[in-house]
Amino acid sequence: MGNIFDGIQNTAFDIVTQTFGYPAFWTPSQQDAFSPEFTGEFGEYGLEPNGETQTAQILFKEPTEKFGLSDNDYEIDAYYMEYRKGTFLGLKSSVNAGSLETVTIETQDGPTDFFVKGIKAKYDGRTIIATLVTK
Question: Domain 4-134, what fold?
Fold first, then answer.
């Protein structure tokens, strides 16, 4: 049985993402980089990459002056995408291995393509933050 607080976190994340989130799409750029021996995210979930587009509802932060003043690592050109571990299987491992990956986010201005500059897990290990740069 799982921890009650993990369940509360999952419920809260789902509600916020469904209420304030944006649809996002990712297609792995280098299918051959993931072999059956791959020991990263695919192995953890027992899945193998098939190159199909993965979709998810994500949280999206655009750079603003207010955001910049409150963030020590502020980058004027950077955007941030936040999603739960288990979403976009293989994206974190691919980016951390040096692959250039692109995600498309349905923003208020329409679909926008972004390069994924970096990805890290938050302190809880289950929330992933990707730093994005416009394509």
Answer: Thrombin, subunit H (2.40.10)
